[in-house]
Backbone:
């Protein structure tokens, strides 16, 4: 695997379910991000992790819970979601504090909440 | 707070022709980075081109080039010799150069259609 991978690619869940999204980066980066992409809206940054430490929580509801066990893996735990949480969830990584701090994205998880 | 505006929700271009996508942004900072990302139907967001605000020279990557006008806060993307594979959503994005501020601010995107 190369770049940034995300699993699953598609997820359908009910409002009472608990599920997790997984992101893995194979680029040797030290920062990882979760974004939400909804139709007709700009990408919204949800969480940022630098060196495994959460540095930003962009006013995200507590039903979204991130976890970063190491610099290569990032999870987004989901519970009691609402239909309006249906969206494409994108993970990205970058080499923070470098001159080429460009974010590289995974293919996303298409989430549908019924 | 920074904002990024893409005023063209949709654009189309004949194959092999040239097209320019517009982007404007608002910031009070003097140093920052600007990006164009491409998102094809496969959904993978792919970096197209990157520009540092302190560089006067416009960035180029093969058929892709930008027209960076810092005073006007404009950052347009020119695609030359358009190909069918260029069909995608194109997003303009801004990032501060401030240490510890890695947030990317995106525009709403422009959907580019290539006409065979």
Residues:
């Amino acid at each position: 695997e190369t770049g940034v991978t995300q699993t699953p690619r598609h997820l359908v869940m009910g409002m009472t379910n608990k599920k997790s999204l997984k992101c893995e980066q194979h680029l040797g980066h030290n920062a990882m991000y979760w974004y939400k992409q909804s139709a007709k809206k700009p990408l919204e940054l949800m969480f940022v992790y630098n060196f495994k430490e959460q540095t930003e929580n962009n006013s995200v509801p507590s039903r979204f819970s991130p976890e970063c066990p190491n610099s290569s893996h990032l999870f987004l735990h989901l519970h009691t979601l609402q239909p309006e949480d249906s969206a494409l969830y994108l993970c990205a990584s970058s080499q923070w504090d470098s001159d080429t701090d460009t974010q590289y994205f995974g293919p996303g998880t298409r989430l549908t909440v019924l | 707070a920074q904002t990024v505006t893409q005023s063209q929700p949709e654009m189309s271009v004949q194959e092999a022709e040239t097209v320019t996508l517009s982007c404007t942004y608002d910031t009070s900072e003097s140093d920052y980075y600007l990006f164009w990302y491409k998102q094809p139907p496969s959904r993978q967001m792919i970096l197209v081109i990157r520009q540092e605000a302190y560089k006067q020279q416009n960035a180029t990557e093969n058929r892709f080039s930008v027209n960076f006008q810092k005073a006007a806060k404009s950052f347009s993307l020119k695609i030359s010799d358009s190909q069918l594979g260029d069909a995608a959503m194109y997003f303009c994005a801004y990032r501060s150069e401030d240490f510890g501020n890695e947030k990317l601010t995106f525009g709403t995107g422009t959907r580019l259609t290539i006409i065979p």
User: Anything to note?
Assistant: Chain A has a mean pLDDT of 89. Chain A touches chain B through 27 residues (CB under 8 Å). The CA atoms of residues 57 and 90 of chain A lie 15 Å apart.
